Amino acid sequence: MKILMMIPLWRRPDVVRMFVWSMERTLPSYIELEPFFIISPEDPDYKSLKKIIKGYKQFEYKNNPLGEKKNKGIEEALKLDWDYYMDMGSDNIWTALLWDTYKPYFESGDPYFGMQNMYSIDLQNYKAIFSPSYHRDSGEQPTALGVARVIRRDVVLTCKPLFEAKWTRGMDGISHSKITQKGYTCEVIDNEELPILLDIKTEYNLTPFLKVEHDKRNKEVDVKQVYEWFGLNDFMFYNQNHTGRVSFDDFREEILKRVNIYGSQSKAFESINSTEKRYSNYSSYRSVQTKQFKK
User: How far is the CA of 227 from the CAs of 66, 70, 97, 236, 272, in angstroms?
Assistant: First the structure.
């Protein structure tokens, strides 16, 4: 079984590094995964991202509009040999439970399926949220997440282009409508509160953490537990010992110290980025609200 996982990239090299690490550590022997990254030449972090995804299949295309970027990526990916297409964001990581849960659906040849629930984490403010039926309006029937949604190759061919080319938002909804209008039904898997999918929130997310946090159906969960479930502590240890870089907690503490010294967050960032290469993987965090930090 060969899975084409399409991952559009934009900024956040530190988070993409987490993504690649998660992808490489959770793959079972019965899955042949073909990661397919879409990178944009105008991305300010282009060079850093190219280094992180070196060795993987990749395609270059402009970032906006996102619908066009994803459609062009699918066109290019169809030149490759694969059985299923999977949507994945570069800010998502998962546990091995994802593949264990999907295995019977792959084996039975289901045309269209995905998860219902997920966790979100705000690295800047050290919070975590569990979302049942993530981002769905109250009263709607549960629908599979766009994250880790799986579509059989023949369904992709029948329904392409999957995304509205001029759109940047609403990708999941419009593609779901196109697929169901062709007569396919989405198998929505209620993964309850199992730690399977995690969305890492930064300032570049289309759906910000505050929106998820303020949804009354969602609930805050122990962020330390989420770190443990999804291996984030292991990643921080790996990152520090293999790249000379340090954990986000260390970075956060260093910023707090420098804000007190220099009097402003912008000057603290300027100082840390010019003098400390070991913090370079957090250089994209320009809008950290230091007053909200907590251990």
Answer: 30, 30, 16, 10, 26
pLDDT in tens, 46-76: 999 999 999 999 999 999 999 999 999 999 9
Residue with tokens 């042949």: 32
Calpha distance 252→4 (Å, rounded)? 36
Q: HSE (CB half, 13 Å, CA atoms) of 232?
A: 27
Q: Which amino acid is at 211?
A: K
Centre a 10 Å sphere on the Cβ of residue 270 and count the other Cβ atoms it contains: 13
> Tens of pLDDT along 178-196?
999 999 999 999 999 999 9
Residue whose token pair is 């590094």:
17
Beta carbons within 8 Å of 108's beta carbon, 6+ residues apart: none
- How big is the CA angle at 216 (ends 174 and 295), to the nearest 5 degrees? 105
- List the Cα angle 130/191/28 in 5-degree steps: 110
Tokens linked to 83: 């059985």
Domain spanning 2-229: CATH 3.90.550.10: yes
How long, in residues, is the chain? 295
Phi/psi at 59 (5° precision):
-140, 140
The C-alpha atoms of residue 102 and residue 189 are separated, in whole angstroms, by 9
The ranges assigned to domains in the chain are: 2-229, 245-292
- The shares of helix, strand and coil residues in the chain, as percent rounded to the nearest 5, are 40, 20, 40
Supply the pTM of this predicted model: 0.78
Cβ neighbours for 2, distance < 8 A, ≥ 6 positions apart: 32, 33, 34, 81, 82, 83, 84
**pLDDT at residue 287, as a whole number:** 38
d(CA 93, CA 95): 7
Q: Angle between the 265-275 and 248-262 helix axes, to the nearest 10 degrees? A: 120
